[in-house]
Amino acid sequence: MKVQRVRAWRDKLGWSQMTLDEDATLHFTYISSVERGERNVSFQTIVRLAGPLRVDPAVLVISDISTRVSSTGMPSLHGLGHQ
Questions:
Q1: What are phi and psi of 78, to 5 degrees?
Q2: What gap in Å lies between CA 78 and CA 58, rounded to an integer?
Q3: Could you give the 3-state DSSP secondary structure of residue 76?
Q4: Which of 17, 34, 38, 80 is deepest in the core (most CB within 10 A)?
Q5: Any bridge partners for residue 76, and if so which?
Q6: What tens digit of pLDDT does each residue of 52-65 get?
Q7: pLDDT tens, position by position, 2-58
Q8: What is the DSSP string of 16-70?
């Protein structure tokens, strides 16, 4: 499965790939190749990336939905019942 927007969410947090690699326990070169779309990743990897980025895993794989930050500071999904 290809993921999208990992870099965008990482940039929103002001994190480097090395910061994300520590929290997601994935090597920064792997994260880099994911961000460039060079890898298909497992659902487990998507969850490992989404947790530290503080997003629903669906945000990383669904490309045609809009996202916003809720009043709690956490991203939420429009149109999917998440608030």
A1: -85, 140
A2: 12
A3: strand
A4: 34
A5: 68
A6: 999 999 988 876 44
A7: 788 899 999 999 999 999 999 999 999 999 999 998 998 999 999 999 999 999 999
A8: -HHHHHHHHTS-HHHHHHHHTT-----HHHHHHHHHHHTS-HHHHH--SS-EEE-
Q: Tokens at residue 41, please?
A: 């990743």
Given a cut of 80, whether residue 80 has pLDDT beyond it is no
Q: Show Cβ contacts of residue 11 under 8 Å, excluding neighbours closer than 6 positions.
A: none
Estimate to the nearest angstrom the gap between the alpha carbon of 14 and the chain centroid: 13
Q: Looking at residue 10, what DSSP letter applies?
A: H
* Whole-Å CA distances, 37 to 2, 30, 61: 6, 11, 12
**CATH classification (class only), 6-77:** mainly alpha
22: Cα separation from own chain's centroid: 14
